[in-house]
Design a protein that fits this description.
heterodimer; A: mainly alpha; MetI-like fold; 2 domains; B: alpha/beta; D-Maltodextrin-Binding Protein, domain 2; two-stranded antiparallel ribbon; 12 strands; 14% strand
Chain lengths: 300, 489
C-alpha cells in the first residue's frame, strides 16, 4: 500500500502521539507544577534582577545596577564568605560524624533499631525547636558546653555572643541536626557493599584501615558524589538557625547569603537586589557542584 | 444640603429628639464631642438636661476631655449601642466584610478583639469584621505577600517603621478625605502632635495613630534598698555607681540589663541615650547618618563602659531579651531597660520583689524615651473604604482605644482621655507614670523608606560595641559609611 508524503507524515505523528502521548499525559501534573513553581519563578526572578520594585510597586528597568551593587556591597560579600566558611566547617564535620556512626552501626548487632532511631531523631526536630534547644547547650552561664569547660578548668566562652565563635556554634547546631540523615544514608550504602570483596581482602591479609581506604571509600564513591553535591546545595541555603539565633549578628559574623537575600527582599523592599544576589548564589552553587562532579568522576 | 445639615434641621424643627440626633450623627461618623457642641449650640441652656437624657454615652462624649477611664470604658458599650441603631437606619444594602489584620500584643488578643468586634458588628449590622491575628516573626512576608497579591487587608495595624515601605509604594490609602472632614475635626484635635505627624508620609495621611510604646528602666526596689539606694539616678555617672552597687558576682546579680543584639532589635534599648545626647539615626534633613558624630560616639562610649569597663551588665550575647526578662523576674537585675507593655506581664507574674520605673538619666541635650507608634492604616486597594474608615474611626475612638491600650499596657496617642485613674479598672501608679511622665517624652523613628536598613546597619555595628570587640568610633564610622552610601542610593 502506497501513502502520499502528507499521509505518511500524519500517520507518523499519530504513531508518535500514541507512543509518547500517554507518558506526557502522566507527566503533565508534575510538569505543570514544575513550570508554575520553578520555571516561571526562575525567569521572573531573573527579570527582577534587572529591575527595581516588582513586589509592592511596578518594576522599573535599571539594567545591571542590582548586579553591580552586589559586587560593591561589603555585607553581600561578607555573607557569601560566611556561607562558604560555614560550609567548610559543617560539611566535613557532619560527613565524618555520619560515616563514623554508620561504621559503628554496621557492626552493632543489639538494639540496632532504637539506636538508629535515636541518631535520626535530631533530624526530625523542627529547626525552631532545635535552635531553642541549642541555646541551652551554648548558654554562657548554664549551657552544656561551658559546664564541660568549667569542669575541665578552662575559661568559659560566649558562644553566640563572640563574632569568632558564633558561626561555628551555628554550624555545630546544623551538624547535630544533620548527622542522623547522613548516618542513615552512609549506613544504607555500607550495607549494600558486596561482602565477597571484603572477605577476599581479608584473606589477602588487608587490615581494617587498609580495607576502609582501598575498598570501602572507593566503593562508596557514588554515595559520596550524591552526598557532597547535595550537602553543598543544602548548606548554601542556611537561614533558619541564623534568623532565630543571631539574626546575622554579632556584627554580621553570622550573616549568610540567604539571610541577606531575605532581608533585602522582604524587610528592605529591594526584591531586585535580593534577586540579583540569588542568582550570584545560584551561579556559585552550580560552579561548585560542577567542580565536585568533575573531580569525583575523574577519580572514578 | 449635607446629611449632617439635614440632621441639624430636623433637630431644630423637633422632628427628631436629641438622642436620635446623637445616634444618627454617630452613624454619619461625627464625633460625640462635635455632636455635643452642636447640641449645646442649638439647645443653649437645655444642653445639660439633654446630656442627662441621652445617658452616659452622650455625657461621656461631650465631656471627653475631662472624662476618666472608668466612665470612658463604660462609654465604649454605649457608643457602640448608639452607633448600632444609627447605622441600621443608615444601612442601605447587603453586608460588607472588612478584613482587619493585626499582630498580637497580648496572649489574650483574640478575647480582647472578639469583644470589640462583636460590639462594632452589633452596632453596624451591615459590616462584618474578618479579624486575622498575624505573627510579628513573619510580619514582613505576610503583609508584603498580601499587598503584592492585590488582596490586602482593608485595615491593618502597622507600627511606624513597618508601614513605611507600603506608604512609599502608594499601597496605603490617603485618609485625608476622612480625617480632614469637619465632622471629625474634634477627634483629630484629640491626638498628640507627634504621633499624628508620624502617620503622615510625604504629605499623605497613611494612618491614624493607635498606641505608643515606650522604653524606660524597671528598677528592682529590693535590690536598690539592699544597696542603700532610693529614687532614681540623676546623672549617668550616678547610674553607673548604682549599677556597680547592685552588681554582685557571687549572688549572680547585675546592676543593669538591656538587650544588645540585632535579633532583639537592640536599637529600642540604646537609642534613647543617643537621642539624649543629640544624636539620631539620621541627620535633621535625613540626607546622611546622624550618629557618627561626637554625640553618638559619646553615647556609645558610655554604653560600652557598662558592658566592658564597669562590667555591670551581663556579657553581651549571653542573654537574649527573653533571658534578661527572666533574670529580672528572678530578682537578678537591678535596672532593666524594657518596654511599657512588660509591666502587665510583671503584674501577672506576681514578682517576689517591689519595682518601680524611671527614665534613664538625661544626656547632654535632653531626656527622652525611645519608642514608637502604631497606626491603623487602610489599604489603597480596599474595595469598601467607607466601611473600612468606620472601623478605623471606631477602634481609634477614645473609649475603645483607651480600653484596649490599658489591657496591653500601652499608652494611647490622644490626650482627651485620662488613663489609669484612681479607682478605675486599671488604676496603677506605674501605668500612671508611663502615661504622664514617659509618654510625653517619646522620641520615635525618623521616617525614610530605608529606615529598617539604617537600623540594621547600626544595630550590627553596635553589637561589636556591646561585645567589646569594636571601639565606638570605629563601629559608628563603619555604620555611618554604610548608611550614607545607602541614602545616596
Amino acid at each position: 500500500m502506497q501513502y502520499s508524503e502528507s499521509e505518511h507524515k500524519r500517520l507518523a505523528r499519530a504513531y508518535r502521539f500514541k507512543k509518547y502521548g500517554v507518558a506526557y499525559l502522566f507527566l503533565s501534573p508534575n510538569l505543570l507544577f514544575f513550570f508554575i513553581f520553578l520555571v516561571i519563578p526562575f525567569f521572573w526572578v531573573l527579570w527582577l534582577t534587572f529591575n527595581s520594585g516588582g513586589i509592592l510597586t511596578p518594576t522599573k528597568f535599571v539594567g545591571l545596577q542590582n548586579w553591580s551593587r552586589v559586587l560593591q556591597d561589603p555585607t553581600a560579600w561578607r555573607s557569601l564568605l560566611n556561607t562558604l566558611y560555614y560550609m567548610a566547617i559543617a560539611i566535613p564535620t557532619v560527613f565524618a560524624i555520619g560515616m563514623g556512626l554508620a561504621l559503628l552501626l554496621k557492626r552493632t548487632t543489639k538494639f540496632v533499631t532504637p539506636i538508629r532511631a535515636m541518631i535520626y531523631f535530631p533530624t526530625l526536630a523542627p529547626i525552631v525547636v532545635g535552635a531553642l534547644l541549642w541555646i541551652f547547650v551554648v548558654h554562657p552561664d548554664f549551657g552544656l558546653f561551658n559546664t564541660m569547660l568549667r569542669l575541665l578548668g578552662l575559661p568559659i566562652v560566649n558562644w553566640l555572643g563572640n563574632p569568632a565563635t558564633a558561626l561555628p556554634t551555628i554550624a555545630s547546631l546544623e551538624v547535630w541536626r544533620g548527622s542522623g540523615y547522613w548516618t542513615v544514608l552512609f549506613l544504607a550504602a555500607l550495607l549494600a557493599l558486596p561482602t565477597e570483596l571484603f572477605d577476599a581482602a581479608k584473606i589477602d591479609g588487608a587490615g581494617a584501615i587498609r580495607r576502609f581506604w582501598h575498598l570501602t571509600l572507593p566503593l562508596l564513591r557514588p554515595t559520596w558524589l550524591f552526598a557532597i553535591v547535595m550537602a553543598t546545595i543544602w548548606n548554601f541555603q542556611l537561614f533558619d538557625s541564623v534568623y532565630i539565633l543571631t539574626d546575622g549578628g554579632p556584627n554580621y559574623s553570622t550573616a549568610t547569603a540567604v539571610w541577606y537575600i531575605y532581608k533585602n527582599t522582604f524587610q528592605f523592599d529591594k526584591p531586585g537586589y535580593g534577586a540579583a544576589m540569588s542568582f550570584f548564589l545560584l551561579i556559585i552553587t552550580l560552579v561548585l557542584a560542577v567542580v565536585e562532579l568533575r573531580l569525583m568522576r575523574k577519580k572514578a | 444640603m449635607s446629611e449632617i445639615d439635614k440632621l441639624v434641621d430636623q433637630l431644630k424643627n423637633r422632628k427628631i429628639d436629641r438622642r436620635q440626633f446623637l445616634i444618627k450623627g454617630a452613624a454619619l461618623g461625627v464625633s460625640f464631642s462635635a455632636l455635643g457642641g452642636i447640641l449645646a449650640a442649638c439647645g443653649g441652656a437645655t444642653a445639660t438636661p439633654a446630656a442627662t437624657e441621652t445617658g452616659t454615652a452622650a455625657a461621656t462624649a461631650t465631656t471627653a476631655a475631662a472624662t476618666e477611664t472608668a466612665t470612658a470604658t463604660a462609654a465604649a458599650t454605649e457608643t457602640a449601642t448608639a452607633a448600632a441603631s444609627a447605622t441600621t437606619a443608615a444601612s442601605t444594602g447587603g453586608t460588607v466584610t472588612i478584613k482587619y489584620w493585626k499582630s498580637a500584643h497580648s496572649d489574650h488578643e483574640k478575647e480582647y478583639w472578639d469583644k470589640i468586634i462583636s460590639d462594632f458588628e452589633a452596632a453596624n449590622p451591615n459590616i462584618k469584621i474578618d479579624h486575622t491575628i498575624t505573627t510579628w516573626e513573619t510580619w514582613d512576608e505576610t503583609y508584603t505577600a498580601a499587598f503584592a497579591g492585590g488582596d490586602p487587608p482593608d485595615v491593618s495595624y502597622m507600627p511606624d517603621q513597618y508601614y513605611i515601605k507600603f506608604a512609599d509604594a502608594n499601597q496605603l490609602m490617603d485618609l485625608k478625605k476622612w480625617v480632614d472632614d469637619p465632622s471629625w475635626a474634634s477627634e483629630k484635635q484629640a491626638f498628640f502632635e507627634n504621633p499624628w505627624k508620624g502617620g503622615q508620609y510625604k504629605s499623605v495621611q497613611v494612618g491614624v495613630p493607635a498606641f505608643s510604646d515606650s522604653f524606660f528602666i524597671y528598677a528592682n526596689l529590693d535590690l536598690m534598698q539592699k544597696a542603700g539606694l532610693s529614687g532614681a539616678p540623676a546623672t549617668r555617672d550616678e547610674m553607673v555607681q548604682w549599677a556597680k552597687k547592685m552588681t554582685d558576682a557571687a549572688a549572680g546579680t547585675w546592676g543593669y540589663g538591656a538587650a544588645t543584639s540585632a535579633a532583639d532589635s537592640a536599637d529600642f534599648w540604646y537609642m534613647q541615650y543617643f537621642h539624649d545626647d543629640g544624636a539620631n539615626f539620621l541627620n535633621a534633613d535625613l540626607t546622611a547618618n546622624g550618629f557618627n558624630n561626637d554625640a553618638g560616639i559619646g553615647s556609645a562610649t558610655f554604653l560600652q563602659s557598662l558592658w566592658c569597663t564597669e562590667k555591670v551588665a551581663p556579657q553581651a550575647g549571653s542573654y537574649n531579651r527573653s533571658g534578661l526578662l527572666d533574670l529580672f523576674k528572678g530578682g537578678k537585675v537591678g535596672m532593666l531597660m524594657e518596654e511599657a507593655s512588660q509591666h502587665g506581664d510583671f503584674k501577672t507574674a506576681n514578682l517576689p520583689f517591689k519595682y518601680d520605673i524611671f527614665l534613664q538619666p538625661g544626656g547632654k541635650v535632653k531626656q527622652t524615651s525611645f519608642g514608637n507608634f502604631g497606626f491603623n492604616c487602610m489599604a489603597a486597594a480596599s474595595k469598601n473604604p467607607e466601611e473600612a474608615w468606620k472601623w478605623i474611626a471606631y477602634i481609634d475612638s477614645a473609649p475603645v482605644v483607651s480600653d484596649i491600650a490599658q489591657k496591653y499596657g500601652f499608652a494611647i496617642c490622644r490626650g482627651d482621655v485620662k488613663m489609669y485613674v484612681s479607682g478605675g479598672p486599671y488604676d496603677d501608679p506605674i501605668y500612671r507614670k508611663i502615661q504622664e511622665e514617659v509618654s510625653p517624652k517619646i522620641q520615635g523613628f525618623q521616617m525614610v523608606p530605608q529606615i529598617r536598613e539604617v537600623v540594621q546597619d547600626l544595630n550590627s555595628q553596635m553589637e561589636g560595641v556591646f561585645g567589646c570587640t569594636a571601639t565606638p568610633a570605629d563601629a559608628l564610622k563603619t555604620a555611618g559609611d554604610q548608611v550614607d552610601q545607602l541614602l545616596k542610593g
